[in-house]
Design goal:
Strand content: 15-25%
Number of strands: 4
Distance between the termini: 92 Å
Shape: globular
Structural class: alpha+beta
Helix content: 25-40%
Radius of gyration: 30 Å
Order of helices and strands: HEEHEEH
Largest sheet: 4 strands, antiparallel
Number of helices: 3
Amino acid sequence: MLRLPFELKESTVVRHRIAAVSAAALLALAAGATGIAQAQPASLYAPSAVVLAVAQGDDGVTVVRASTLSCAPTAQGTHPNPRAACTALAATAGTLDGLLAAPNPDRACPMHYDPVTVTADGVWQGKRISWKHSFSNACAMSATLNGNPVFAF
């Protein structure tokens, strides 16, 4: 009879261990099912979404027009030609100064100072970007961007 209490204690300890392991397994399954421990990316594509703006003045504060552009996985946004704009941005390899070309020599612009600033803010291929460039006037902007579709909105 002396062994009976010891056997009861041992089986109680074993049952408690089994219950604890079962509870831990259930919690892990529940956490995975609800997305708490989700380590997978939401998409296979690095995010590429920018807000493009054209503003009056050197500081870029008075926005005249703006457009949104998302390029991954498909070209979309409020931009009138998102596919062409995404292709032009991709050609810059993330260096938006590549949008600027030598001004068209066949185009004459007035020499008055009425500054225009273009900006691009957002994420390009997973990296934060913030780019700004000012032109002496709208004609100089148009001649320098030389038909580039990014700011054609």
